[in-house]
Amino acid sequence: MSDKPFFRFHPGAYERGAFVRSLAPCDVCERPSVWLYDAAIYVAGEKPAVCARCVADGKLSEHLDGDFQLHDADMEDEIEDAVSEEVMQKTPGFSTFNAFTWPVLDGKPLAYVGHGDEDATWDDPAAVAAVKKLYADVYGETLDGPTPYALVFREVDGPRHVAILDLD
Ligand SMILES: [Zn+2]
User: How far is the CA of 126 from the centre of ligand 1 (A)?
Assistant: First the structure.
């Protein structure tokens, strides 16, 4: 496995700082991390130092006996176990104000692509449309610019975007 694996449910993980460059040893594989995980692990007890390889390939899941999550989130019950595990335990986290329910379309979890206040979000017309639709649906008002209170997701293999609220 590459030292810098791609995460299809969080494609911007490295740019967003979910990992930092470090040669500190990974507690799971005991090799130099190269990309050391620097986001939350929701686990009882001590949080291991873990490399990107061990997050991606499931060795972290084995190390923690599957008893943890990388997101302060719930997954809908009907998602198949392997996919649910990929999202919750093999996909690097990102900061949110609150727990949230991971968005799903047609039985498939969506990929997290950014917050409503990131430049990349406002460079993507489909992401902007999703955030504006969210505000229109929830508040009945037009949003004029970036907001830190929206999380934007899109289909892994499709163009549809969905935004959800994350109020502080
Ligand atoms: Zn490792």
Answer: 36
